[in-house]
Amino acid sequence: IRLEANHNQTVQSLCMRDAPTTRFTLLQRLADGEDQEAWQEFHRLYEPCIYRFARRQGLQDADAREVTQEVLLTVGKRAEALQSSSGKIDHFRGWLATAIRNRVIDR
Fold it and tell me: Which residues contact 101 (CB under 8 A, 6 or more apart)?
């Protein structure tokens, strides 16, 4: 699903207003599949944000948890590509917001 720029900004602000500050170094560490501390930190920081956004979109608890897990898996699969996005944290946050929204729409 391709989102228009204005709509994407709205989705990003809805999800990310409660999100922690994203450190580029954390994204770099995620690309290393062996860095368990990085994944634990990312999960601790972003799991609640992803879940809250899914719930705000009207999903029931079980569906919101499933969307959360699917998005986290997607981040894991795309970690290397995400960290190489020229260090643009806004790019990552926009991508994450879109990934969450698309999973919610799929419900």
Answer: 1, 3, 11, 15, 53, 57
Burial of 106 (0-12, 13-18, 19+ CB in 10 A): exposed
Angle between helices 36-56 and 61-83 (to 10 degrees): 130
Distances (CA, A) of 97 to 3, 12, 15, 85, 101: 11, 5, 6, 16, 6
* Residue carrying structure tokens 């228009």: 4
- What is the per-residue pLDDT across 62-72, written as a single tens digit (0 to 9) for each? 999 999 999 99
Express each pLDDT in 25-39 by its tens digit: 888 888 877 889 999
Q: At what angle do helices 5-16 and 89-105 cross, to 10 degrees?
A: 90
Contacts of 63 (CB under 8 A, 6+ apart): 54, 107
